[in-house]
Amino acid sequence: ICRELRKRVKLPMYNTIDDAVSLLKKSRNIVVLTGAGISTSLGIPDFRSKGTGLYSQLENLGLSDPQEVFDISLFREDPSVFYSVAKDILPSSKKFSPTHAFIRLLQDKGILLTNFTQNIDNLEGHAGILPEKLIQCHGSFATATCIECGYKVECEKLYYDLKAGKVAHCDRCIQRIREVKPGSKRKRSSDGSSGSRKKRQSYEDSTDDEDDDIAVAGVMKPDITFFGEDLPKTFHDRLMDHDRELVDLVLVIGTSLKVAPVSEVVGVLPPTVPQLYISREPCSHVDFDIDMLGDCDTIITELCRRAGWDLQHEMIAKDS
Ligand code: CNA
Question: Is 304 assigned a ligand-binding role in the annotation?
């Protein structure tokens, strides 16, 4: 749509890497839309890459529709399916990729309007992207909420359960169950969040009776948006009431753009605004001005080199 319209109304056409570089250099309000591809260089699998993506792995496990792992109804029925997969997406360090560093660089230059991320790994924060510049369209692993009582905790407290692929239950629910249970003799660690080392230890020592308490307690769901759940209101507000008016360049990186409504973002932004795409695979359902296909860290590094921008990151060779 973008290129077609440009041709029809005789707007300038953009085709080459150097065109992309000059657009980057002259733009003042860049919307960056990112997906799982910007974190794969850190060892976090995406969804759809053949062979390495989570969906390929789940197909191998015999799941008919891998998307079901992130289906809210299924989570309510059997959270263990989600927990068995979540450990792979949850980062084990605060490392971010050169592409995250590039988005931070745009922010430092004062030309990042918004980073809409579909990622739930929360690495944008570690790269220093400011909360006011970031919309986490699908939530994140930062916090988790009990699906029964709404009790919210930092996901850090569930870290050991998440990494062990073990369903995390709600401490507040467990406490309540124990309070109403007559004749309970059990002792319980006072700070016991379900994921802390201390608590894990106490679970390991627990009796069958205690395990029963935990099993009936509410399940903690990381505050990521599952299929069947609404996106945060800030996503629509920011896009429709703020960015649509201001944006002068759209940069889409490392996403297959297959998950709605984020996949519709490029369509609601003015078609006269140039749209660039960086990913390993072409995105056949969107007509971007320039498709730059390949590894995003490499492409970003080259764009910065040509722009004369100093992108620093431990994964970028000094002379590149
Ligand atoms: P996707 O559908 O798996 O698409 C990822 C895209 O990135 C594919 O087109 C790949 O070809 C491409 N890609 C992979 N690695 C690279 C690379 N190094 N350089 C360039 N391109 C690359 O994932 P989407 O993000 O499009 O789908 C949205 C889902 C994925 C969201 O709901 C996320 O929550 C979910 N997800 C997030 C993470 C994460 O937070 N890191 C990981 C896995 C899935």
Answer: no
Residues with Cβ within 8 Å of residue 255, at least 6 apart in sequence:
33, 34, 35, 36, 37, 118, 262, 279
User: Per residue of the chain (320 residues), what is the pLDDT tens digit?
Assistant: 567 777 888 888 999 999 999 999 999 999 999 999 999 999 999 999 998 998 888 877 667 777 888 899 989 999 998 998 898 888 889 999 999 999 999 999 999 999 999 999 999 999 999 999 999 999 999 999 999 999 999 999 999 999 999 999 999 998 888 888 766 544 444 333 444 444 444 444 455 666 666 777 899 999 999 999 999 999 999 999 999 999 999 999 999 999 999 999 999 999 889 999 999 999 999 989 999 999 999 999 999 999 999 999 999 987 66
Residue 169 annotated to the active site = no
Ligand 1 test: best mutation among 34, 39, 46, most atoms within 8 Å of CB? 46
pTM metric for this prediction = 0.90
| Per-residue tokens: 171 | 């401490």
Residue nearest to atom 16 of ligand 1 (CA): 37
Q: Residue whose CA is closest, atom 5 of ligand 1?
A: 255
Residue 256's nearest CA partner among 24, 15, 20, 33 is: 33
Q: Compute the distance from residue 279 Cα to the ligand 1 centre, in Å.
A: 9
